[in-house]
Amino acid sequence: MKFIMRIFAVVVFVAVVGVQAMAQSPVTVFEEGRNGPYANFLFTGTPEIVDVRRAPDAPREGQAVRVTAVVRPNTLAASMPVARVTLSYSLDGAATWTTVDMLRDDRDEQVYIADLPAAKQGAAVRYYVSAYDVAGSLSSEMPGYVAGFPQQATNMLSVTDENASDDAILPDVDVLALRVGYDEQSFYVQAEVEGKPGKGNMVGQGAYMYLIPVLNQDKAVGIGDFMNMDILAYAPMMGQMLGFGESGLFRISEVMETKKSIEGADVKFKKGPNSLNFRFNRAAVGDMPSGRVEFGLLTMAATSLDSMYPQEASPFITAYLRTHEYTVAPRGAGEPLALRAGVAETDITPPVGTPLAGYGARQGKPSTGVHDPLLAQALVIEAGGRKMVFLTSDFLLMRRSMYKDIASRVEKELGIPRERVIASGSHAHCSSGGMFPELALLSGNAVPGLYQDTLDKFVAVVKQADAALQPARMGFGTGDATGYSSNRVTEGGPIDPDLRVMRVDKADGKPLAILFNFGAHPTVLGDKTMEFSADFVGPARAAVKDAFPGVIAMYNNGAQGNQSPSCPGDCGGGFDKVEKTGRGLGNIAVNVAENIKTQDKLPVTFLTREIIIQPDYDIRITMSGVRFGDTAMLTIPGEMFVELADPVKAMARDKGLKNLFLLGLTNDGIGYIVTPEAYQQRVYESTFALFGPGEGPFIQAQLLAMLDML
User: CB–CB of 371/532 below 8 Å?
Assistant: First the structure.
């Protein structure tokens, strides 16, 4: 669009390029350039709103809704940077609207996030996303015309130019705002200007024209086709000269040939004291499969018959003729959905010589061998056509950087929304170091290339799991693993003996994947061990595989901040103890799995929340929640003390949930999440409780809120 504007901007363009070419350090600034009327029209593209989605997909009463938007500069046209993205929503069927700023993702500048508040059952919720560039131009999903046009028009897209310099502008044609709305049949356009629009004569002040190019972006409109661009115009002088009415929707080529405006446009025009108001038939601009249409406002002044020049242009609007809406469903699990699942695993053991992670006493020394391989496993579940990813790994910590990079690539390469990726580390203290510079104290200096190599393996295993999707059955159970954990902070202190199991079967009932969740540090092996090992997790998985040949066994840690591993009876030491501890836990998982009845359909709800945990430095965490029928899963972004998890488990029981998975060290590893009492006592774990004494209760409150929403 804006080819007319481009022509008028050539002189400004030359001036700008000249300034850039001469710029030295410090950069020279042409202050008077701010007074030019068309500098922003050197940039012809508004931001692109590529994708907008929500989680959960079918919100229920009491559930906040995460809205994610992918917004980027237009890559096919010169485009200014994105300055602001907003989410507008109505909880009463479009009677009233609220607008909030969306938060830019901390690791992907094209992703923006905001939450819709929980609403009551039956509420009609509508929402749309808008994006502004630094010049004030707007791209927006259109909310639709409501009522009152033109006197009290509501719910229209609007850009304003009130703050622009008026030095080069005649007072009667200073553009204040451009507004656009629509209904099923018509577009509504309002131009608000200073003074009386159209005032003037050729002898005195001159005459003014208002041209509003309307570009259907599904048409093949290029600079060579500019004569066929649709233009909404109020131009008494031009109308008199060319023989058509003073206002209308026209194409220059047709005007020159027929002296008529576009047939069927049915333009209705009303001039207000400070405004020009148009209504015209949407069909006149042609079919719009993409739903994208663009509007601009250009003024021109003529002081004589042979002296016509550009005066001012408003920021412009690209509108997407779409909105998003849902009706809030009642509380409860929802309708059962057909299930599919795929699973895969891969070896992520780094080269021998890479430092191990977990103990500062190793001082970053190189590893000496591999006792058992470090694994990553991916489980992709599809419910009702929507996919989610569970990724487990023998990692000390799944740092946010890695989690976000995995999720971003999964979205780009597989189309699974990044917010539906859950990734965790087992916290094995003989796993790979050399990965994260910020963890050098515990895992040695970063090894060049290792992060990228490991990231590639994570993404590859998710791809393998996704490619293996097949009809599936799922079921859940909980067993008692008393004796396999102890409180490492307080002797005889509280533990969480629950061992939770998710069983995923093929359609024929044969096990495909078994994920078990138990809270304990994988620290059977001490800092003297210099070989890579998954610790007790390895033999625990092996026990499950032995019982169910062909299955892929996955482990998620739990609320293990103050939980050490234990081994009932005489278990010896070293790798003997690792074997007996792991096999004992694995056998409990097997016993639970054998008694689980799986189903081919389950109600499924997925929630995710983005939380700023340190506002001064914009440090964030991502927490997710999933409900499968009578089972809930909640993620914890670090190492939580078990006392903080107990009220969450109690709420789950009160809600009638039979199983509650607490997935620790998931989507991030922000350190220990301790009770205020432990923080004040300055126990070892409080040293790495990085966000103060209130961090534990805060994370607990988020878990309780998410469980309540599920």
Answer: yes
